[in-house]
């Protein structure tokens, strides 16, 4: 049995990383898989196999830059994006005194229904709706004609037993007889939905919660506890949860300017000069968004400079250091040419440049990194 989807839009991305998923009784294409070989296993696990008991793992999120819809914040993180969480709303049939400290108990005691809400109407345009449907018969069945009709007859979506089928033949080979025309059923009648007696909205974008009591028409707005940039407030535990983990780099690191890199859609760091990709474990990003990487030192780290730059530096050193040596010898042998400032400068430059001769030609790009550190005060 295979599942397919229909969509009102052309599928915007390759289907490797996303599927048609439910979000608040509507179906949208959501990125629900991490790129292959993603090296932060926690992100992969929480994205692809979220814990149904964990609230934060079951709230969709938009990417701040791409505006792609992700299954949850961890799917956004493993694609290298900051996220915008959907709003979380609890609709309760009865009014009552809501206390943020005991919200979980209140929601459970009053049979409140959890809803998800898009954080801003401006993001509606980035939702790609879809409809998952069953398009084949069960394996090892004896309905050969039905199987052919199911797969090759024209598609006319029907609904039966709360499931959507490609056509009536697909529903029949699953043993279902009560079939409804899905298109007619979904035309709707613009019925007004009854407002709940009490509604509790958590807006993660503005970090507030709103309590609306229908009976009294009271609308109270409260502020959620402030969290650090890489943390999100968890209403169940009433604590800030860190969701982005940057382990410190065990090396000598250098900061990159924004012109030296860009972050790909699958979360890799691309170095413009060396044309290399780094995994998320090979760089860190601080709370201000500044990227740091290891510089080459012996066999560890990477260089942000190109191989060509390394060879140019090497050639310059090979030429300049012997020239400096000759200059010093001439100054020592011919007193009339000797001036103290020039002699001092020559000795200083020679002593600073000599360590660059002790390099590995297999890694010439180490030269600019060391050179930068040596003359950074100039």
TrEMBL record:
Keywords for the protein's UniProt record, in alphabetical order: Membrane, Transmembrane, Transmembrane helix
TM region(s), chain numbering: 311-334
Tree of life domain: Eukaryota
Name this polypeptide is given: Uncharacterized protein
